[in-house]
């Protein structure tokens, strides 16, 4: 089973999801999927719901990823693979950028302000992000 992605870099690998940078249809994109090869019904449903919410929120926010499409492969009645394809902002997970001694105060405040702007944009649609943490944030304009 293949969804047609050429994985270039794994950004996150968790129990219920994986996020990676990949080549897809001659573009570099970010892909979020369940652990392959097939997701559980709840994992598939969760990704499909996230895609719908992401498409709604991204239209009004520069702080939310651009959700491009959802790709799926139905193997049989019980097994399905689903992946969300997002534009690659060329960022990295914030968790991978945190120095051992933390950020200088001015950098921390810049990150905090931009993070709150993203959450504000999500909350404007009456959506609550239930897993806010540095591993779930991508930082794009970071300079040490």
How would you summarize what this structure contains?
This protein has 144 residues and is of the alpha+beta class. Helices cover 26% and strands 29% of the residues. Strand 1 (6-13) and strand 2 (18-24) form a beta hairpin.
Structure description:
The chain is of the alpha+beta class and 144 residues long. It has a single domain, classed as 2-Layer Sandwich (Phosphorylase Kinase, domain 1), CATH 3.30.200. The protein is built from two helices and seven strands; from the N terminus they run βββαβββαβ. A five-stranded antiparallel β-sheet has the order 1-2-3-5-4, covered by helices on one side. The chain has a two-stranded antiparallel ribbon with strand order 6-7. A hairpin with a 4-residue loop joins strand 1 and strand 2. The radius of gyration is 16 Å and the shape is globular. The model has no long low-confidence stretch (mean pLDDT 87).
Annotation keywords:
single chain; 144 residues; alpha+beta; Phosphorylase Kinase, domain 1; five-stranded antiparallel sheet; two-stranded antiparallel ribbon; 2 helices; 29% strand
CATH architecture: 2-Layer Sandwich
What does the main sheet amount to?
5 strands, antiparallel
Structural class: alpha+beta
Strand content: 25-35%
């Amino acid at each position: 089973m293949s969804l047609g992605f050429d994985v270039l870099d794994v950004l996150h690998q968790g129990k219920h999801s994986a996020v990676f940078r990949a080549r897809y249809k001659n573009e570099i994109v970010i892909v979020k999927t369940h652990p392959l090869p097939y997701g559980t019904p709840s994992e598939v449903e969760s990704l499909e719901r996230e895609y719908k919410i992401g498409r709604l929120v991204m239209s009004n926010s520069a702080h939310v990823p651009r959700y491009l499409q959802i790709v799926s492969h139905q193997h049989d009645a019980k097994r399905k693979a689903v992946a969300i394809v997002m534009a690659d902002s060329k960022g990295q997970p914030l968790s991978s950028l945190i120095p051992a001694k933390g950020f200088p105060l001015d950098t921390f405040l810049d990150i905090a302000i931009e993070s709150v702007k993203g959450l504000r944009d999500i909350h404007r649609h009456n959506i609550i992000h239930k897993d806010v943490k540095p591993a779930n944030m991508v930082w794009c304009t970071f300079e040490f």
